[in-house]
Design brief:
Elements: E1 16-17, E2 24-27, E3 34-37, E4 39-44, E5 52-57, E6 64-65, H1 80-91, H2 94-99, E7 111-115, H3 121-130, E8 133-137, H4 141-149, E9 154-155, E10 170-176, H5 185-194, E11 196-207, H6 218-225, E12 232-233, H7 236-245, E13 250-256, E14 259-265, H8 279-292, H9 298-313, H10 317-335, H11 355-361, H12 366-379, H13 384-406, H14 413-433, H15 435-449, H16 458-473, H17 476-481, H18 483-491, H19 497-513, H20 518-539, H21 542-561, H22 565-572, H23 577-580, H24 586-599, H25 602-618, H26 625-644, H27 649-669, H28 673-693, H29 696-707, H30 719-736
């Protein structure tokens, strides 16, 4: 049985005080403006042993700064082993570090410098995957560990005018999350600029001052502030001014979530701040590096977790399962627990727990590995019970880790995101076993999220999408419980177009199948189609196209059920089978084809006739009343297309004969008046077709069946009399030798 998630767990204590305080007369270290600076917040910096520090804002350049903080000693680090373990296994953000290397084209052998390189993941990727000539400089023990474990060329010191690079000039220099630590940044940036080759490029990343705000999730806010370590939080304006003062003429700045990314150069090299990381290259790097560092170290756990993330995100699920098994066995060897067993037996954190003791018992990446394993259980194995177990484990471990980090003024944004997503996915898995309980949990989550900022804003979308999941499962009563809050969220304008389309569509299905209001369903399907069109207009997504056609198809069915043939025809005439085939199952398209024929929309129906014929071929061996009934309806509809649209009465007669045969099989397996009535209808259509074809002998053969019919009670009203008239006309034509061609076309009934 999966462990449940305690959604009412104690929220980790905040380390930020937003209560207003008086301004102070200060000089802004970013722009030099003096005068009163408004107070922003106070943050606990106890982990850096500098006490409580205040953050102030500069109204001239929009920067924010801690005036009472000076650069700490980076050469030493209290409780270093625990923080190194956290950094190696989960905290480094390696994919974001190496993404900078794709901003501009770099040839093999290009000179790459990283200032403040930390452990050196980006250096290692640049050297191993891109064949760059790399050098790092960083005084911290993280850099010393990276130089030793990855055999990297790293200078373990601060960058100063006396730093000796042996006369090397660099094509690309990166200082990622460095300048916020320096209270006088201009000389530092000029030092790097002086080491660039002609046309060389400098990339800076730094926290975005605008995100030091109450609506920023705590998991992102605390690392952004890093009180006691960060001196200045830059705005776009102040960062651009700093780079211009350092002598750069060409500057581009982008905002990535809570970070500013700046590229500066005096050359004309192409720059693309939106360039994406080459995921194939990154995966190959992780696979290769993992093989070189063993299996039971923190570094191996970190490479394994990041590789598992890549495999899962790219839907390489089988390889992901194999990698997970290796990680599980490694965790058992090193830490003595098995992730497959209930975590209540081995996962705990006592009140006096320290980060150091917690780190010795559990891998720091346990939250992420368990989360990814839950996705594999849900998407690959189809085992929601196992998925619940892993999402619960992920949430519990991540919450404990965040509590310990916040106790020392830190946090981890990725862990916060995994917790929030894990809670939503836990409910999605729970829906298979207990739909009503899942709906109740989703409703509670939606209420909670109104009162706190989200680390992962799409989590609300994940929770709202549970309604669609419940509808797709047929748990309509549980889904209806979420309707009021979900509809309010959609109408607020906060939902994305994909979610809006998905949920409006689910509302339509609720109206059709739960509330039996097809007119309202048709309106919801129209809203779903409109949202999908907006989605496609913005992203040109194939999924958006699919949603457009699905919504349009279901709107057609809703108007049919509502008895509004005119509106149904308006929708049906816009069908395009080539686009619908990959969206709507062939069987549903075939039913739509039959409806269109019965409405008389033969031109629209003719476009779907190949799919109807293909379905008949696919199901030629299927038997039973449902299969035979569908076979009858399709054959009769094809016959009506042949005689009324294609003007081929002989082919239509053949289709009506096949329809009659299917109706007889239907009647044999299910002796109902409806089946018998359809036999007579197919016979009458066949008689009619032979008359139109001018084949009096065949028409007479069919007409005599009506004269000899014993089961008149199953024949539709007036059919026998009409059949007699046609038979008499055929007999007269045959006797006189005149043309027996019947000029009146058949009509759908």
């Amino acid at each position: 049985m999966a462990n449940s998630i305690n959604h009412d767990a104690v929220t980790p204590h905040s380390r930020v005080d937003w209560m207003p305080r008086p301004p102070r007369d200060l000089v802004c270290p970013a722009c030099g403006a003096s005068g009163p600076k408004p107070f922003v917040l106070a943050a606990d910096a106890s982990w850096a042993e500098t006490g409580h520090v205040d953050l102030f804002a500069c109204p001239h350049c929009d920067s924010k700064f801690f005036p009472d903080v000076r650069c700490p000693e980076y050469e030493s680090f209290e409780d270093f082993d625990s923080y190194l373990k956290l950094y190696l296994e989960v905290g480094a953000g390696v994919d974001q570090l190496v993404r900078h290397l794709f901003v501009t084209p770099l040839r093999p052998g290009a000179q790459y410098l990283e200032v403040g390189c930390g452990f050196g993941f980006a250096l290692d990727f640049a050297r191993g995957a891109m064949a760059l000539d790399v050098l790092g400089i960083d005084p911290s023990p993280f850099a010393r560990a990276g130089a030793r474990l990855l055999t990297l060329p790293i200078i373990g010191d601060y960058l100063t005018p006396e730093t000796d690079f042996d006369g090397r000039r660099f094509d690309l220099a990166v200082a990622s999350e460095v300048i916020e630590h320096i209270f006088d940044p201009l000389p530092f940036v000029r030092l790097i600029a002086d080491r660039l080759s002609p046309g060389g490029i400098l990339i800076l990343t730094t926290p975005n001052a605008a995100k030091a705000a109450p609506d920023t999730p705590l998991g992102a806010l605390l690392p952004l502030l890093s009180a006691g370590w960060h001196c200045i939080l830059y705005s776009r304006t102040s960062l651009e001014r700093l780079l211009r003062d350092a002598g750069f003429r060409r500057i581009e700045i982008a905002v990535r979530e809570h970070t500013l990314v700046a590229v500066a150069t005096n050359g004309d090299a192409p720059i693309d701040l939106e360039a994406k990381l080459d995921r194939n290259m990154f995966q190959a790097y992780l696979e290769a590096r993992r093989r070189t560092v063993g299996f039971d170290s923190s570094l191996a756990f970190g490479f394994g977790y990041r590789l598992l993330k890549e495999l899962t995100n790219t839907k390489q699920y089988q390889q992901g399962l194999e990698l997970y098994e290796e990680l599980r066995l490694a965790f058992r060897r090193v830490c003595g627990f098995d992730m497959e067993t209930p975590h209540t037996r081995w996962l705990y954190s006592h009140p006096e727990e320290s980060l150091s003791s917690f780190a010795t018992r559990y891998p720091m990446c346990l939250c992420g590995v368990a989360y990814l394993r839950g996705i594999l259980a849900l998407n690959q194995e189809g085992e929601p019970g196992r998925a619940m177990h892993f999402f619960s484990l992920s949430t519990c471990h991540g919450s404990m880790l965040r509590n310990l980090l916040q106790a020392v003024g830190s946090d981890d944004a990725e862990t916060e995101v995994l917790i929030e997503r894990g809670r939503a996915l836990y409910l999605r898995a729970l829906a298979y076993a207990s739909p009503m309980e899942a709906a109740t949990g989703a409703s509670r989550l939606l209420q909670e999220e109104r009162t706190r900022p989200l680390a992962y804003p799409q989590q609300r979308d994940d929770v709202v999408a549970i309604l669609s999941h419940l509808v797709n499962m047929g748990a309509l009563e549980a889904a209806e419980k979420l309707v009021p809050e979900t509809e309010a969220y959609l109408r607020s304008g906060s939902a994305s177009d994909p979610l809006r389309s998905e949920v409006w569509h689910a509302f339509g299905r609720l109206e059709m199948n739960r509330r039996h209001r097809p007119r309202q369903a048709a309106l919801y399907f129209a809203l779903a189609e409109r949202a999908a069109k907006l989605w496609h207009r913005r992203e040109h997504s194939a999924e958006a196209i699919e949603q457009i056609w699905r919504a349009r198809h279901d709107r057609f069915i809703a108007w049919l059920v509502a008895g509004n043939a005119r509106r149904a025809l308006c929708v049906g005439r816009r069908f395009e089978p080539a686009k619908m085939l990959n969206v709507i199952p062939r069987k549903e398209l075939t039913v739509t084809f039959v409806h269109l024929v019965n409405l008389g929309a033969l031109e629209a129906a003719e476009k779907l006739s190949p799919e109807a014929e293909a379905l008949l071929a696919e199901q030629s061996t299927e038997r039973g009343p449902r299969a035979d009934k569908l076979r009858y309806e399709v054959r009769r509809a094809l016959g009506l297309i042949e005689i009324n649209r294609r003007c081929r009465p002989r082919q239509s007669a053949l289709q009506f004969a096949l329809a009659e045969r299917a109706a007889k099989r239907w009647h044999c397996s299910e002796d109902t008046p409806s089946a018998m009535e359809q036999i007579w209808r197919a016979r009458f259509d066949r008689l009619h077709a032979w008359m139109v074809a001018g084949n009096a002998p065949r028409a007479l053969l069919v007409g005599r069946l009506f004269e000899d019919a014993p089961a008149l009670n199953s024949m539709p009203d007036g059919m026998r009399e009409r059949a007699r008239k046609l038979t008499h006309q055929a007999s007269t034509s045959l006797a006189s030798g005149t043309d027996s061609r019947y000029r009146q076309i058949a009509r759908p009934q």
